Amino acid sequence: MADEIVNRVANSDLKTINLEDFYPKGERTVIDIKNWLFHELILKESDFREYLKNHDWSKYQNHYVALTCSSDAIIPSWAYMLIATYLNPIAKKIVIGNLKELETSIFQEIITNINIEEFLDKPVIIKGCAHKPIPETAYIQLIEKLQPIVKSIMFGEACSTVPLFKRKK
Fold first, then answer.
1. Would you tell me how many other CB atoms lie within 10 Å of the CB of residue 143?
2. Euclidean distance between CA atoms 169 and 56, whole angstroms
């Protein structure tokens, strides 16, 4: 059958990795602590502790949380650490920063834990065009992890890839 259509991609050793497949479910929440400060600028320890003690922390159950202060206040490290003592038993992850920094931290952990054995000596496509907020840094971290062990790395879709790396023979 000379006219038979052969799917060369399906028959190849080519492996595709889509970071979107690893995107963890869970609400992302930013907690801006400026409203917990005196005149949104001064952290009064006793008032701050009282606010934290009376705050409804249950609403952050299973959330990914970014702690920030949008005012120009100087926040001591212990203040964020104290907040973390309330969030740690209920939140999935806590960072100091914005949503972008939160996603970067989430994906850093995910990429660290990806089992890369199946990619050993294989050509790999890192799929692009995600519909979820995959941080750019995650792609760089994935390259760092894969490059020492793969045959080649491409970006995009199987039908249209951009070559990024090819191991020398």
1. 17
2. 60
Q: Classify residue 157: in a domain, yes or no.
A: yes
- Look at the chain and report how many structural domains it folds into: 2
* Residues 81 and 123 occupy one common structural domain: no
Six token digits for residue 81? 């650490």
pTM of the model: 0.83
What's the whole-number mean pLDDT along residues 20-26?
A: 94
| Strand partners of residue 157 | 160
d(Cα 141, Cα 19) in Å, to the nearest integer? 11
User: What residues contact 44, with CB distance under 8 A and at least 6 apart?
Assistant: 37, 38
Q: Quote the domain boundaries for residue 142.
A: 15-23+115-166
Domain boundary, last residue among 91, 107, 124: 91
